Amino acid sequence: MFDASLWAANPGQFTLAPDEIHVWRANLDFEPASLRALETTLAPAEQARADRFRFPQDRNAFIATRGILRELLGKYVSRAPAELVFDYAGRGKPSLHAAPDQAIQFNVSRSHDLALLAFTSRRSVGIDVELVRPDFAATEIAQRYFSPQEIEELKSLPPQSLAEGFFLCWTRKEAYVKARGEGMQIPLNSFGVSLTPGQPARLESTDSARWSLHSITPDPRYVGALVAEGKDPRIVYLDWNSIDADPKIQS
What we know:
The chain has 251 residues and is of the alpha+beta class.
């Protein structure tokens, strides 16, 4: 269930305690001037990637998400957003170049006009968000990617809960795969998650003792999931748009 009061404003100081995970939500609907300011911080490769999007709304959402990532990450490591350099693991998971002992870890997801960004210290993390779309071909996709137990649980849901259950399952699976950093090398039907709306999030995998799975509701229209290394982290929920209605970019 969505709780607007859960998402706090700018904390003032961007520091991460060892047991903390900061989860930021960001609305990606920007005025052109604000979008241009975010775009100036992107690296040439990121700008080239943005230009490959066919539709302007997808290009703008990508620019906004990468710009916000740079803005927030810059605050955590006290560097200008444009100066940040990313490394990419073999399966594409980004990390901050030359970060000592992987001091800060992060992960990002976006869907339509909303993004979630997770930051933590010295632990792997994966995050995913999806807009719940009732017209989505959930059953057909579930048959291809979900485990037999998940398919049965999905079938047991009442029709009005089917779409939410599907996207709960999908985001939890994606967050786990992203946390491990192995991409589609991990078959989505090789592990299981719970998906019944209103019930606790549960992960069933050969290494489930290593991870904690958390359900996130950043907006009434969306569902999300966070998978983090270790048990019982303290999750702090923050609203990026409350920092400044017209974000100022460090130079």
